[in-house]
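User: Hey, quick favor. My workstation is busy. Could you predict this chain's structure for me?
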Amino acid sequence: MDIHIFQSNEGDCLMVEDAAGEHRILCDGGSEAAMRHRIAKELAQWAIDDKEIDLLYVSHIDADHIGGVFIMLDAMTQWMVYDIHAEDDDPSAEPELPRQPKVHNIWHNAFRDIVKDNVGKIESLLAASAPMLQASQVHELQHLGHDYAQIATSVPQAIKVSRLIKPDILNIGLNQLPNNSKHSGKLLMARDKQNDEQIGSLTVSILCPTQAELDNLRKGWNIWLDTEENEKSLEKARNYYADGLNTSNPFALGNPIDLHKWNGVAAYKQVTAPNVASTVLMVEEDGKRLLLTGDNHPDMIVDGLKYGGYLDDGYIHLDVLKYPHHGSEHNITSDFSRQVSADHYIFCGNGSSGNPDLRVLEQMIEARVGAAKLRALAPEAQNRSFTFWFSTSAKAANTPGFKLHMKSLADWAKKMEAKHGDVFSARFSDEPYITLTP
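Assistant: No problem, here it is.
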């Protein structure tokens, strides 16, 4: 497999392609700014080459993961509108961003935009259609009307659109699980006897969240919905695209939702409920294993690995670990650094909030070259080469403070390479993306 690590500002954005280059998973979309100014241009090349995205995996609702997804899907919708106007000889302004690759399926956990709808057992709830763009099958233009969601940066879901211009333009499935049909369209979670999903030669296992984390996420979601201010924001979101279609410059209305006003439940060890509810995936191909962690807490990740049968010996050695929460100091434990080791560690972050945190990097490197009591438990990790991959660099960071932080990490990495160069190396990205092939 190839893993393309995008410069996604403070967020996450990875593209995983199978060895044949025929199937791919896009993992989160970074921040809105990163997608708008950098990532969308790179993804456009996949579209030019007719390379489609089998699965768009949104780990959780934080803006630095889902914000870029909103921009990407918004661009797709704008091109849909542009093409329809062009066909009707009614030209409109060409969208600012280039065409994006076709997306077949989106995995994303969210609830509906009315509190009373978010009831019942978690495992039986249908997932809300937050990032889903699905065309109506109605044949007459004036009667088109369909619920779909385009405001992926926000908590509100099932956005009402009074007009969707033409059927069968975009058709993206939500939480479709071909190998687990009875759970298809429902919330993603670790379930008993759940089959792995197959994307080409990529095998995908869902390890987290559990029902407990989703219960807390639903509670926080409903708190957000049950306020007058957010109800008004929700109304704007429902009318967003209907209004945009009636202007000469569709979708120039801006984003009507502020994700940062979401009111969650109490954090778990300083990690928020949405983060702890991150969907964690194991992706495998030809014996290679990649663990995608979102912003989840190590306690939940370890439990998910145990539940999935990956920690039967008390440890696991991976080919690639996407480190959780951008290398935050709140997302590391002494047990995690010993139980989970890898040949390659990916740290997404640009210095925002001090991430990746140097204390995390030091603990992870101690687990490989430090004292015996700190070392990783997996025999495969002993005296084995490993690399830290950083999604950005001091040169590419976008503020003086972030540049200073990334420079300090690069200086530290240089010292570590001088000291442990026989096994350790570090890669900092100056480019729009770098490619890791384990």
